Amino acid sequence: MNQDPERIHDAYAPVHIFPVVAGRCAEVLTDADGYSRCHRADHGGEGEHHVKDRAWTGRQAAGTIRLRFSVACGPGCIYPDEAEAGGNASGPD
């Protein structure tokens, strides 16, 4: 597994997401499109995670996520958005 065991440590975390990049936040958000990694620099879990137009706190796998929509990028958003199809993603028939 290519994930940071200190940050992604529970059995429900997906194992086929983008590898952690040094200096980048390791948290991911699962939605209908697949998996998206927070594109902020590593912020030690402090503050909100951000991807696309969404921000969240907590851990999705632990059921503690609090999601907000229509949130613009801030100064901590330095990595490009990356999404990987998978999970509950549904493609064309």
Helical fraction equals: under 10%
- Please write the string of helix (H) and strand (E) elements: EEEEEE
- The shape is globular
- The chain-level structural class is mainly beta
> Number of helix segments?
0
**Care to count the β-strands?**
6
Strand order of the largest sheet: 1-2-6
Assembly status: single chain
Largest sheet: 3 strands, antiparallel
Question: Ranges with pLDDT <50 over ≥5 residues?
Answer: 8-12, 88-93
How many domains, as an integer? 1
Mean pLDDT: 74
Percent strand equals 15-25%
Distance between the termini: 31 Å
Structural Rg: 13 Å
How would you describe the overall organization of this protein?
- The protein is mostly beta strands.
- It is globular and about 25 Å long.
- It has one domain.
- Strand 3 and strand 4 form a beta hairpin.
- The protein contains no helices and six strands.
- It has a three-stranded antiparallel β-sheet, with no helix packed on it.
